[in-house]
């Protein structure tokens, strides 16, 4: 089966790892310290943003002025909480179908990259025993502008040595999807929330991801474009 793409770029949380709930727990930890209400819907809207952007958004719920130093301290506190949570991760915390999908990509010699806002991404991949599968890992420390800017995805493609129009990028967060759609990459949106309808191909869950289904989706879009 000829493959119409050379690389797949993954987001981490909610695409590879079942860690969205852990981020919610870490964010709740900060919200409680600030005595503000933080919902799962708010958590969803912040997916893909950097740690400091996330903490600043939670601080904004107070309606009060918060200094950069306070945001930095709270960000460190949030990171400590999150690191305690991910220390318990095992391969069972990979999302359904991800291991078989990655295995299919490797067998087809498709390059694989990670584009994640989380600086803890290598640690999570190690806990899932997946780190050796990735050719490139890009986080916010390697780029000047985080999601929704497309820089993190374009950097991943550049490091892989693959043109962006030969890349597929997979996201479950609105910020990340917005970034992908500013490139020539084929965008896959994971999840049923409305923001994912903007993707070139939307799947309800990672269980729907396979080499065959992705190839078919990319081909269908190219046919429509001609």
What do you see in this structure?
With 226 residues, this protein is α/β, with parallel strands linked by helices. It is built from nine helices and six strands. A six-stranded parallel sheet has the order 3-2-1-4-5-6, with helices on both faces. Strand 2 (111-115), helix 6 (121-127) and strand 3 form a beta-alpha-beta unit. Helix 1 packs across helix 3. The longest helix has 19 residues, at 68-86. The protein is globular and about 55 Å long.
* Topology as a string of helices (H) and strands (E): EHHHHHEHEHEHEEH
Quaternary structure of the protein: single chain
Nearest-integer average pLDDT: 94
> What share of residues are in beta strands?
5-15%
Which sheet architecture does the biggest sheet show? Answer: 6 strands, parallel
Uncertain parts:
none
What is the number of E strands?
Answer: 6
Q: What's the arrangement of strands in the largest beta sheet?
A: 3-2-1-4-5-6
Query: What share of the residues lie within helices?
Result: 40-55%
| Radius of gyration over C-alpha positions, nearest whole angstrom | 17 Å
Quick description:
By secondary structure, the protein is α/β, with parallel strands linked by helices.
Spell out the blueprint of helices and strands:
Layout: E1 7-10, H1 20-34, H2 40-46, H3 51-60, H4 68-86, H5 98-107, E2 111-115, H6 121-127, E3 136-138, H7 151-160, E4 167-171, H8 174-180, E5 186-190, E6 201-203, H9 211-225
Parallel strand pairs: 1-2, 1-4, 2-3, 4-5, 5-6
């Amino acid at each position: 089966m000829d493959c119409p793409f050379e690389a797949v770029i993954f987001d981490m949380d909610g695409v590879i790892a079942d860690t969205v709930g852990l981020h919610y727990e870490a964010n709740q930890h900060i919200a409680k310290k600030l005595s503000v209400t933080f919902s799962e819907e708010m958590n969803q809207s912040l997916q893909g943003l950097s740690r400091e952007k996330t903490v600043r958004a939670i601080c904004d719920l107070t309606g009060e002025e918060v200094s950069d130093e306070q945001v930095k301290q709270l960000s460190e506190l949030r990171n400590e909480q999150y690191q305690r949570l991910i220390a318990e991760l095992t391969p069972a915390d990979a999302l359904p179908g991800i291991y078989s999908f990655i295995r299919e990509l490797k067998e087809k010699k498709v390059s694989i990259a990670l584009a994640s806002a989380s600086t803890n991404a290598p640690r999570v991949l190690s806990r899932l025993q997946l780190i050796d599968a990735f050719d490139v890992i890009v986080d916010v420390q390697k780029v000047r502008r985080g999601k929704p800017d497309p820089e993190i995805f374009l950097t991943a493609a550049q490091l892989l040595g693959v043109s962006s129009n030969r890349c597929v990028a997979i996201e479950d967060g609105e910020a990340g999807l917005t970034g992908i759609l500013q490139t020539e990459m084929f965008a896959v949106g994971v999840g049923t929330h409305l923001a994912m309808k903007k993707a070139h191909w939307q799947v309800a869950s990672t269980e729907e991801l396979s080499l065959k289904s992705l190839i078919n989706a990319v081909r269908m879009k190219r046919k429509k474009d001609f």
